[in-house]
């Protein structure tokens, strides 16, 4: 399970990460990463733990499907939170095809998206 200290909760945090962060698109998801110390987000610091937020809209499916997708993504992200730089913020936006994707495919896509976002964020500095 994803610990409370690693969750994004405020809509303002989601908005800043999506607007100012590095964007990486995959067939079933879009990942936005805002590294710590970014001028666009003065509240991020290297001392804070990495934070993760999920956006699963109605285009993904009904309430049961959306909640299932959220649980699957939270489980995958809990295992990968250590790969994120300290103080960074990550938002994963689910796309409509995510509900039917097998967990192994979701894990591969999430790994690829996070790795690419981290490398792009490092180059941007």
From TrEMBL:
GO molecular function: 3'-tRNA processing endoribonuclease activity; ribonuclease P activity; tRNA binding
Coiled-coil positions: none
EC number: 3.1.26.5
Catalyzed chemical reaction(s): Endonucleolytic cleavage of RNA, removing 5'-extranucleotides from tRNA precursor
Biological processes per GO annotation: tRNA 5'-leader removal
Gene3D superfamilies registered for this protein in UniProt: 3.30.230.10
GO cellular component: ribonuclease P complex
SUPFAM superfamilies to which the protein is assigned, alphabetical: Ribosomal protein S5 domain 2-like
Classification via InterPro entries: Ribosomal_Su5_D2-typ_SF (IPR020568), Ribsml_uS5_D2-typ_fold_subgr (IPR014721), RNase_P (IPR000100), RNase_P_CS (IPR020539)
PROSITE patterns for the chain: RIBONUCLEASE_P
Keywords carried by this UniProt record: Endonuclease, Hydrolase, Nuclease, RNA-binding, tRNA processing
Subunit structure: Consists of a catalytic RNA component (M1 or rnpB) and a protein subunit.
PANTHER family: RIBONUCLEASE P PROTEIN COMPONENT (PTHR33992)
Summary of the function given for this chain in its UniProt record: RNaseP catalyzes the removal of the 5'-leader sequence from pre-tRNA to produce the mature 5'-terminus. It can also cleave other RNA substrates such as 4.5S RNA. The protein component plays an auxiliary but essential role in vivo by binding to the 5'-leader sequence and broadening the substrate specificity of the ribozyme.
Family: Belongs to the RnpA family.
Name this polypeptide is given: Ribonuclease P protein component
Organism, scientific name: Jiangella ureilytica
The encoding gene: rnpA
